[in-house]
Design goal:
EC number: 1.11.1.11, 1.11.1.5
Largest sheet: 3 strands, antiparallel
InterPro entries: Ccp1-like, Haem_peroxidase, Haem_peroxidase_sf, Peroxidase_I, Peroxidases_AS, Peroxidases_heam-ligand_BS
Number of helices: 14
Strand order of the largest sheet: 3-4-5
CATH topology of the largest domain: Peroxidase, domain 2
Helix content: 40-55%
Family: Belongs to the peroxidase family. Ascorbate peroxidase subfamily. Belongs to the peroxidase family. Cytochrome c peroxidase subfamily.
Order of helices and strands: HHHHHHHHHHEEHEEEHHH
Structural class: mainly alpha
Organism: Chlamydomonas eustigma
Main location: mitochondrion
Number of strands: 5
CATH architecture of the largest domain: Orthogonal Bundle
Bound molecules: protoporphyrin IX containing FE
Length: 376
């Protein structure tokens, strides 16, 4: 429709000598390719989903042509496009801002977190990927997005979703999480009002619940940061080759105590290691898509010996199909940790309850929630 209007207007401007076919082509091109951002719209040329964005920005667009007639026409055309867009939105979207809301600048778009949760549930089961579920990968995304928090200065944490940007997206500890971020893109496109930070943490929550785990209290309110200059310092996520002291340093920096460290580590009942991501291999348990206390039972009841291979030190059971990381083994070597491993191996209910509170807190570290934000 906009192009039809353009042709009409150009025809009437024949006496201004702007309606030559080449002017028309130029005008159409200008409309479609470069002047959108000048009028306050998003630059369409950069709208492709970006899973890892460099910190530096693209070069600025060239200045608009110094042609009054073309500028006037562009104004008319873009105005038509905007009005047309609003009508199309009204026709096809029942959550259209109402006139009163438009007048006051407010929006009534209903933030239906239930619908987002449902959309996440729907993508969890995938035949052919690992053990048949993206659930464990999404739990790891939520944890790595949040586990950078430093309580000393309030930096890091899930707020900001800075893992979209360099350098954080390329940290070795985040290898493989590009996959997690990309599978959530269609959901972000369907519910553009949710921040990435809320979406990533909510997906971890939905994944735990969807795999049979406890209900995790979760509330929205995280705000995305615009660029990689907000990435936290590197080296904050745990190194699996290290000992108990390192585990305590990393988790107490976030504000967790020994019991919470053990409870959170129970997430390794899910998923597996990948040689092309961390260098380690195999799952921790025989039920890697079911949330349970099996990890603690296996830690205590199976015999773990160093795996003989060219890779990094890891432990294997007598079937050689299951694994433990050096940091997992610290949980039974260190007496203070071990007593909680024993507790959770015996009492799954206690594990579920302690995991739910610690995981919920992990996902909220450093987030300033708007007043009166409630769990959904
Ligand atoms: C000392 C602490 C921790 C260390 C050293 C550690 C290390 C690792 C490593 C090396 C992997 C394998 C990654 C891969 O190759 O794909 C992994 C996977 C995983 N981690 Fe941790 N982790 C720790 C704590 C946690 C915590 C606190 C959670 C969640 C609350 C968690 C959740 C997971 C999950 C669900 C996976 C499986 C991912 C998948 O299957 O793709 N981890 N972790």
């Amino acid at each position: 429709m906009a192009l039809q209007i353009a042709r009409l207007v150009l025809a009437r401007c024949a006496n201004q000598q702007v309606a030559s076919s080449s002017a028309l082509v130029n005008l159409e091109y200008a409309m479609l390719s470069r002047s959108v951002s000048t009028w306050g719209f998003r630059n369409l040329s950069s709208s492709k989903p970006s899973f890892c964005v460099a910190a530096s920005s693209a070069s600025p667009p060239p200045p608009p042509p110094n042609n009054k007639a073309v500028n006037t026409l562009r104004f008319i055309l873009l105005g038509s496009v905007a009005v047309g867009g609003v009508f199309a939105y009204a026709l096809f979207n029942s959550e259209m801002p109402q006139p009163a809301a438009l007048a006051t600048g407010q929006t009534t778009v209903k933030k239906d977190y239930g619908a987002v949760k449902k959309a996440i549930e729907d993508i969890l089961d995938v035949e052919g990927y690992d053990d048949g579920s993206y659930g464990p990968l999404l739990v790891r995304l939520a944890w790595h997005a949040s586990g950078t928090f430093d309580k000393a200065d309030g930096t890091g944490g899930s707020n900001g979703a800075t893992m979209r940007f360099e350098p954080e997206c390329s940290w070795g500890s985040n290898a493989g999480l590009d996959k997690a971020r990309s599978i959530l893109e269609p959901i972000k496109a369907k519910f553009p009002w949710i921040s990435y930070a809320d979406l990533w943490t909510l997906s971890g929550v939905v994944a735990v619940e969807g795999m049979g785990g406890p209900t995790i209290p979760w509330r929205p309110g995280r705000v995305d940061k615009p660029s990689g200059v907000h990435c936290p310092a590197g080296g904050r996520l745990p190194d699996a080759s290290k000992g108990a002291q390192h585990i305590r340093e990393v988790f107490s920096r976030m504000g967790f105590n020994d019991q919470e460290m053990v409870a959170l580590s129970g997430a390794h009942t899910l998923g597996r290691c990948h040689t092309d991501r961390s260098g380690y291999v195999n799952p921790w348990t025989n039920a890697p898509t079911t949330f349970s206390n099996l990890y603690f039972q296996d830690l205590l009841n199976k015999k773990w010996t160093p795996k003989k291979w060219d890779g990094p030190l890891q432990y294997e059971d007598n079937t050689k199909t299951l694994m433990m990381l050096p940091t997992d083994m610290e949980l039974i070597k260190d007496k203070k940790f071990r007593k909680y491993v024993e507790l959770y191996a015996k009492n799954e209910e206690q594990f579920f309850s302690d995991f739910a509170s610690a995981f919920s807190r992990l996902l909220e570290l450093g987030v300033q929630f708007p007043a009166a934000t409630v769990a959904v």
